[in-house]
Structure formats: C-alpha cells, structure tokens
Amino acid sequence: MKRIAYLLLAAFTFLAMAALAQPSAQPLASWLPKQRWQKRVVLLCAPTASEPELRAQQQQFAAAEAGMQERDIVVREVLFDQLSAADKQYVTQKLRVNTTGFTLVLLGKDGGVKRRETQPITPKSLFQTIDVMPMRREEARGTGKP
After folding, report:
1. pLDDT bracket for residue 48 (50, 70, 90)
2. Which fold would CATH assign to domain 2-140?
3. Which of 7, 25, 34, 53 could form a disulfide with 102 if both were Cys (CB 3.0 to 4.6 A apart)?
C-alpha cells in the first residue's frame, strides 16, 4: 500500500511540475516580453537539470499549484547547458544571473525583477513577496489591472 501511495505521489508531482513549468523552445528574449502584463514569471536557472536546488525548488512549487495559478505565475526552467549563446548572454547580462549555480528570478507582470534568490524558497515566501505588490493587491480586490 505504501508503494502505491509513493507511486501516486511521484506521478502527481511530475504532472504538477509539467503543468507549472511550461517549457518553451522559444528564446527567452522573445518569450519574456509576451508574458508582460499577463503573467508573473519565475525563472529557475541552473547549470543542468540535475542541480539539487532546482529539483528541490520544483518539488516545493509542485505542492503549491493552486496558489501559483491564483497569482498568475508561470515557471520556466532555464538550463545553462541547453541555452543558445544569445539566451545565455540575455540571462547573464540582462537578468544578471550567474551560470555556475542555482538562481530563482521572480519577474513581475511589468517585466521587472522583483526577487532573486540563490537557494530554494518556500511557496509561502514567494506568495508573500507577490501579495504585497500593488498590482496583486488590486487583483485580490477584484479590480485587477491589465
């Protein structure tokens, strides 16, 4: 019975992360502007897909899918070993991300960097950052601006 429960939990985690982390073949420099005024973007940047901090962050976010959707958050992995030269330059110069370790970058709906962390954070901490933003407060009151 424990084995079935474990398998179900693993399957749920995988499906939740697939729903949250919307992988895109589109270059970041062209994808990010399309999210402006539509979504808050969380970039999970890591040297490779096997980075322990990346996996830990994905698991924490998978458990908070409802809160992520409520706050219009889209999560995108940024794996440095898979980036084009142009995207790597964009990430390092425009977003000021170091390519040697894990970095979480929160971009607001206005496209600006709102938070940057080099260790995984809890969904609660992310939500607290977002919930004090003026645009989020307007949304919570039901008068959300575009």
Report:
1. very high
2. Glutaredoxin (3.40.30)
3. 53
Q: What pLDDT does residue 1 have?
A: 62
Q: What is the pLDDT of residue 4?
A: 53
Pairing of strands 73-79, 40-46: parallel
Question: Does residue 61 carry a pLDDT above 50?
Answer: yes
pTM of the predicted model, to two decimals? 0.78
The pLDDT score that the predictor gives to residue 3 is 58
Q: What gap in Å lies between CA 63 and CA 45, rounded to an integer?
A: 20
- Dihedral angle at the C-alpha atoms of 11, 66, 22, 5, nearest 10 degrees? -10
CA torsion sign for 52, 121, 113, 38 is positive
Distance CA 111, CA 57 (A): 22
Distances (CA, A) of 66 to 32, 62, 63, 70: 23, 9, 8, 6
HSE toward the beta carbon, residue 61, CA cutoff 13 A: 29
